[in-house]
Amino acid sequence: MTTASAHAVTRGLASAIAGFRPADLPAPVAHEAKRSLFNILAVAIGASRHEGVEIILRVAGHSGGTPTVPIAGRAERADAQYGSLANGFAAHVDDYDDTHLVTVIHPSAAAMATLLGMLAYTRPSGARALTAFALGCEVQLRVGVAISPAHYDHGWHITGTCGVLGAAAAAAWLLELDADRTAQALGIAASSLLGHRESFGSMVKAFHAGKAAANGILAAILAQRGFTAPPDALEAPHGFADVTSIPHRIGELDVDLRKNFELLKNTYKPYPCGIVAHPAIDAAVALSPRIAQPAAIERVTVRCHPLVPELMGNPDPHDGLQARFSAIHGVAAGICDGRVGLAQFSDERVIRDDVRALRAKTELSPQSDVARDEVRVEVRLSDGTRFEEHVEHARGSLERPLTDKELFAKAQALVDPIFPGRTAKLREAVGTLADAPETAALIEAIVPDGARGH
Amino acid sequence: MALVVTEALAAFAAGPISPSRTTLDVARHLIETSVARALAQSNGASVKIALEAAQTFGTPPQSKVLGHDVRLSAQWAAFVNAMAAHAAVVPAVLALSEPADVRGEELLEAVIVGTEGGLRIAESVAPDHTDRGWDTAGTIAHFSTVLAAGRIVGLDAAQMRNALGIAATQAAGLWAAFGTMTQTYHLAKAAADGVEAALLGQAGFTGPAQPIEGRRGFAALLARRFRPDEITSGLGSQFKMDHTAVHDDAPRDARLRDELARYALA
User: Fold this and answer.
1) Which of A64, A221, A243 sits opposite B53 (nearest CB)?
2) Where do the domains of chain A lie?
3) Which of A81, B128, B205, B245 is the most buried (most CB within 10 A)?
4) Which band of pLDDT confidence, cut at 50, 70 and 90, is reported for residue A7?
5) What is the per-residue pLDDT across A55-64, written as a single tens digit (0 to 9) for each?
6) A419: left (phi > 0), else alpha (psi -120 to 50), else beta?
């Protein structure tokens, strides 16, 4: 591990970003970056008809600039500002994106939105595009590690706050800024941090990821032209870490970006809701075939990690957005339907009688000896029959990562309703990105046929 | 009381107001000072960079950039003009007034609800908020610009609350940036974000119910102590900004005026 002296963190990080070459990305990291990019593009396509995306594009239509930025899943383009907002928003709004478990950062949404936002300005090769995306994720995660857990615990939505820094890093790197100007970009970005956890349950939560990208791009464009900022914005007294995250270890931030990649610890959600509920949903889906009549259930007891009721304790959500913060809904829907995907979080599904009835019979029982990716679910029927399911490690956890095949199946369920049969093409475009002279094939894979342009 | 802070502010900013002559005078003074500064500083180095950066987006020519023969979208005109004016509220209001073709009275009222709302929020978290390293020119200005911009575009109370939620989560600006161009960027970013939040709110984007007073909201995250009464007490009937009137030299008002200067006039 290489730590800059505690008073040169921002400069050290900026030098490492400016000096980074695509060849510095080790093969396993490039592979994980591709998995992350494939996952996030599929997620964004899946959410491309969300009302919030429509609203952002409507505002872009009358207030936005030159439409250069492709929007995943859409025929329209938007300018760098609104295009980033739309892509980042769509990538995060279904709570179906990736998670770096130690920091709870969802790094790909802002990194992908930044990459798409910068394509027209910088026309990168495929290798540079993939590297920029990886750097955008990695910088978020390194800063996140140094300010966790205090930052999130205080109430900051770390995906937004660190997202701005990762976005600035990726945009600065694509613009080929030198170390000084990269440090300025990080400095401007630090003063544009955003994201309060109060907005969870509203459209503003996903707005954080999109705006992080937009702010990072603006910071890099300003820095490119000589706009000045503090060269030590991360570690300075009254800088990013001090102001948001006491206690922190910003001085220990590992600035050698060529090894110890946090991106290798990225995970992909199998279910579109808060990750702490995933072990319980695994158990519910496994129990479902054994229960012929959910109406015959008398009691469901979920022995879980204490964070489950803390973060996802809503016992009776009224719509899809609220249901994403209800572990009880995830369990009830998993038992009733035998699967949990976007359909189980639609507004109509959430308020139907069968899941409402089962939710009322389901209780969360926090246990101090149950791990975060573990659960024990017990179902008791009114005739006294009991079923039990113990999940040691949830699907999509570090110990049990989604396989490439599972990831493809997830992507397919998201992409097919929008672009039938397109998922293999998307996987191919991402898989061969590092060898592609440009990003045209990638863009073709994420927009409707005939809407390619550029 | 704490539960109704955002709702009360939204109702205030969207509803009818009856400002006194003093209040109107303060607003007029803010407009004059902001415009004069923007014109005087229109060729400053940071302003030129801001203008170039905004032009890279190729925005529609909706609102004038003061001192330049250039028009940008309202959001980016507000950004550049705020950089030049060292002020956030007036540039945000002016940028939206041009495409909307508003009357002078409406323009003054927008400046008033933005300034008054911002001043009250600043009071509710003072002095702890600033002591912790937050620059009110970036943080508080996000509230004043969204209230003012929201009024100009005609948001109703519900839309205003959503717009406040979009703006609140972006309230930022670090003391560490003092002495660099980024210090002024705090104001400029607030002006642009306030305009954008108002436009998104108008288009139906939704936000949290209690972005200011909620458990993980602005006050909880950016200040240790929060006095919601500073915001709600007398809201609509008393105007704290009256005490910042330039002809009023009473010493008890110097701190308020200083606070106003920090985020509105710098």
Assistant:
1) A221
2) 9-270+412-446, 275-391
3) A81
4) low
5) 999 999 999 9
6) beta
